[in-house]
Amino acid sequence: MTVDEAITSRRSVRAFLPRPVPAKMVEHLLAVAARAPSGTNMQPWKVRVLAGEAKERLSAAVLKAHDNEVDAHENAYRYYPVKFEEPYLSRRRKIGWDLYGLLGIAKGETDKMHAQHGRNYLFFDAPVGMIFTIDKALELGSWLDYGMFLQNIMVAARGAGLHSCPQAAWAKYHSVIRGVLDIPETEEIVCGMSLGYENTGAPENSLETEREPVSGFAVFEGF
Questions:
Q1: Closest CA to 31 of 49, 15, 13
Q2: Is 189 helix (H, G, I), strand (E, B) or coil?
Q3: HSE of 67, CA atoms in CB hemisphere, 13 A
């Protein structure tokens, strides 16, 4: 697979096969991804890699919090704006309703929406789940560097025939995750990620997302 193919075939897969992924393969992907650039080579990323009972224990704890309407959980940092403006609002709504449409979930079926959102916390049945953290003392630049590291993991995974799904949804339950994985208060939960082999028979994996043409976001001068 060429680099272009790995990048363009990367998708957020939301249903995985139970086929295991060896720890050595994950270790290799992380080693490749760690070649991502970072300001003054600070390398701000930290990863908890979970499989088997360890993954199930985290999933059970977070799902319990997700289903408990009494407990209030909020992100420690703001991922999305308080108010969405265009064109971001339309893009957000489209992917949401496209996904629900494939799953047969109609507007107003809140129980089904809640259950589907809860599948995030099963890592969509992937054999490997990852939780990413960063030192709270670091600033915005290190978070930007972190994005390049995450992208490297996903592209390297495609090169190895795997798929992934980056999941901001995990950050909401940072207090639960911190307790289960014994993560110190000095580290912030950035996100989670599912990793494994795609279940090609799952309808949600037929979701196709649109991208703006280059002319919609880039300006060329001096050519």
A1: 49
A2: strand
A3: 14
What CATH code is carried by the domain that includes residue 156? 3.40.109.10
Distance CA 72, CA 193 (A): 23
pLDDT band at 71 (very low <50, low <70, confident <90, very high): low
CA distance 149 to 108: 38
- Within-domain flag for 97: no
Residue whose pair of structure tokens reads 């319990």 in the numeric block: 64
**Mean pLDDT across the chain, nearest whole number?**
96
Contacts with 71 (C-beta within 8 Å, 6 or more apart), sequence order: 65
- Domain assignment of residue 221, yes or no: no
Q: What is the pTM of this model?
A: 0.96
In three-state secondary structure terms, 142 is: helix
The closest of 47, 98, 129 to 208, measured between CA atoms, is: 98
Q: How many CB atoms lie within 10 A of CB 158?
A: 19
Q: What domain count does the chain have?
A: 1
Domain with 41 in it: 3-80+120-208
The runs of H, that is alpha helices, within 136-185 are: 140-159, 174-181
Residue 86 DSSP label: T
| 76 is a domain residue | yes
Distance of CA 110 to the CA centre of its chain: 23
pLDDT of 70: 60
Question: Domain for residue 58, yes or no?
Answer: yes
